[in-house]
TrEMBL record, chain A:
MF annotations from Gene Ontology: ATP binding; ATP hydrolysis activity
Endpoints of the signal sequence: none
Protein name: Peptide ABC transporter ATP-binding protein
Domain ABC transporter: 7-254
Key word Nucleotide-binding present: yes
Organism: Falsiroseomonas bella
Membrane topology qualifier: Peripheral membrane protein
Domain of life, source organism: Bacteria
Automatic annotation (TrEMBL), chain B:
Gene3D superfamilies: P-loop containing nucleotide triphosphate hydrolases
Record function comment: Part of the ABC transporter complex GsiABCD involved in glutathione import. Responsible for energy coupling to the transport system.
InterPro entries with a match to the protein in the record: AAA+_ATPase, ABC_transp_ATP-bind, ABC_transporter-like_ATP-bd, ABC_transporter-like_CS, P-loop_NTPase
Lineage, top ranks: Bacteria, Pseudomonadati, Pseudomonadota, Alphaproteobacteria, Acetobacterales
GO-annotated molecular function: ATP binding; ATP hydrolysis activity
Main enzyme class: translocase
Subcellular location: Cell inner membrane; Membrane
Annotated CDD domains: ABC_NikE_OppD_transporters (cd03257)
Protein name in UniProt: Glutathione import ATP-binding protein GsiA
Membrane topology qualifier: Peripheral membrane protein
A GO term from the CC aspect: plasma membrane
Length: 279, 246
């Protein structure tokens, strides 16, 4: 089986006041049709890695890699036209806050229909029907009402469902979800993740779930990649999270307050400078 | 220390808080949990005097709280907000941010107090003349805590103080709050959607749903899962599920 995405030796640098500032430093990943969790704190390079998979980094960024290949396309040499064909059609991106990622002056359903028409040939009516069908697939009970609603008339969870429906419209192979539930309530968060989980499994897609929340990610992914300082610290099966070996992963797990047991003090993570060096 | 009786808050047609009542003893930490829109932050803001259209009665240290609060109240009650990016003045240095409460309350020895406040929240001295954007999220929240404590309050109102922070930084800020609370014998009210965070800091808590307090329970009952209201049970089950401890 050819992998959906293959990253080897990815380096991304941004220009800073004192020369290049590294954001990603030698990350290698191979992704199949699975759910992969990319976990780390702010500044760990997890989002930049996700964006690199869509080549959605600012022009000032410097990207170097031995291999950067998604759905059979070499991102290092692809033309802007090839990238446009890839984005949306083969890879979808879901961002944190639907308030900012949906067009505020266009009804939600029209935005889904537009996404569908950009990648399928069909009439307006077919696009409308496809959009309504997608809305019901993301478990919206009254698709016609949500179709006509503007984003500000929708709750956060509803907006995120619209966003997911829009990303599914072209039928991509890979979905990148960057903190898709961080702006939502815990109950809604669980609903959205279960929905994503089911859609990805049913459609046989690959999912990259980018998040700072290690326990949450381990509940919904098959495999977890833990990043720190632009590097991969540890890669493990989600089911083996409790057996994580790397002190950083262990530190991330240990510093959380727990509901089942009281603790006087929360252990604070001691960061080892050696984590940023070596192979 | 704090007593709230039959508090109602209306914003136009929206009845945000419906008949909330609770008491907090001196030196106690009390939690308010619920989903967004449950009214938990509004209760806190009404206590702080940041919300006007309320009815019912609230008292602090035996004195009834009116519509307008005096300088002594504002010195005794301080608040820490969720977002350290939004709650610090972007064009003021940390030194300036921390001197503001001292000027307002006419507290002398600003120089020493600011140095001590920074030390108390474990910030390096160099931070004093930096701007908020030059600090990390955790350092910013420490500045917000230092600002709240510099006038020597007896009550600390915390509105989701760690929700915007990474897990490791959250641990540092929670430890800091626990230490300061013990050292200064503070009475705290903590608003959070995270049950584990509330259980860590608070001995008692109220669960809110659609503006109403549906249940008040203590830390042991929360940890032991001995809740009676279905909404509380739901929140506990969800928290365990997402923790991976379910």
């Amino acid at each position: 089986m050819t992998p959906l995405a293959e990253i080897r030796g990815l380096h991304v640098d941004f220009p800073g006041s004192t020369g290049w500032q590294p954001a990603v430093r030698g990350v290698s990943l191979v992704l199949g049709r699975e759910k992969l969790g990319l976990v780390g704190e702010s500044g760990s390079g997890k989002s930049v890695t996700g964006r690199a998979l869509m080549r959605l980094l600012p022009p000032s960024a410097r990207i170097r890699a031995e291999t950067l290949r998604v759905a059979g396309t070499d991102l290092l040499t692809a033309t802007p036209e090839a990238m446009r064909r890839l984005r949306g059609a083969r890879i979808g991106l879901i961002l944190q806050d639907p308030k900012f990622s949906l067009n505020p002056v266009m009804p939600a359903g029209e935005q889904i229909a537009e996404a569908w028409r950009a990648h399928h040939r069909g009439s307006r009516r077919e696009a409308r029907e496809a959009a309504l069908e997608l809305l019901s697939q993301v478990l919206i009970r009254d698709p016609a009402r949500v179709f006509a609603a503007y984003p500000h008339e929708l709750s956060g969870g509803m907006g995120q469902r619209v966003m997911i429906a829009m990303m599914l419209a072209p039928g991509p192979d890979l979905l990148i979800a960057d903190e898709p539930t961080s702006a939502l309530d815990a109950t809604v968060q669980a609903e959205i993740l279960r929905l994503l989980d089911r859609l990805v499994s049913d459609r046989g897609m690959g999912l990259v779930l980018i998040s700072h929340d290690l326990p949450l990610v381990s509940r919904f992914c098959d495999r977890i990649v833990v990043m720190y300082g632009g590097r991969v610290m540890e890669e493990l099966r989600a089911a083996d999270l409790h057996a994580a070996r790397h002190p950083y992963t262990r530190g991330l797990l240990n510093c959380l307050p727990r509901l089942d047991a009281a603790r006087q003090r929360l252990p604070v993570l001691a960061r080892d400078p050696a984590w940023l060096e070596g192979p | 220390m704090i007593e709230v009786r039959d508090l109602n808050v209306r914003f136009g047609k929206v009845h945000a808080v419906r008949g909330a009542s609770f008491t907090v003893a001196e030196g106690e930490s009390f939690g308010l949990v619920g989903e967004s829109g449950s009214g938990k932050s509004t209760v806190l803001r009404a206590l702080a005097g940041l919300v006007t259209g309320w009815t019912g009665s609230m008292s602090m240290a035996g004195c009834a709280l009116g519509r307008r609060r005096d300088a002594a109240f504002h010195r005794a009650v301080q608040m820490v907000f969720q977002d350290p990016y939004g709650s610090l003045h972007p064009r003021q240095t940390v030194d300036r941010i921390l001197s503001e409460p001292l000027i307002v309350h006419r507290i002398p020895d600003a120089d020493q107090r600011i140095a001590r406040a920074l030390e108390e929240v474990a910030l390096p001295r160099a931070v004093r003349f930096r701007f908020p954007h030059q600090l990390s999220g955790g350092q910013r929240q420490r500045v917000a805590v230092a600002r709240a404590l510099i006038a020597g309050p007896s009550v600390l109102l915390l509105d989701e103080p760690t929700s915007a922070l990474d897990a490791t930084v959250q641990a540092e800020v929670l430890n800091l709050l626990a230490d300061l609370r013990a050292a200064r014998r503070l009475t705290c009210i903590l608003v959070s959607h995270n049950l584990a965070v509330v259980a860590h800091l608070c001995t008692r808590l109220a669960v809110m749903q659609q503006g109403e307090i549906v249940e008040t329970l203590d830390e042991a009952a929360l940890r032991g899962g001995r809740a009676t209201h279905p909404h509380t049970k739901e929140l506990i089950a969800l928290s365990r599920d997402l923790d991976g401890t379910g």
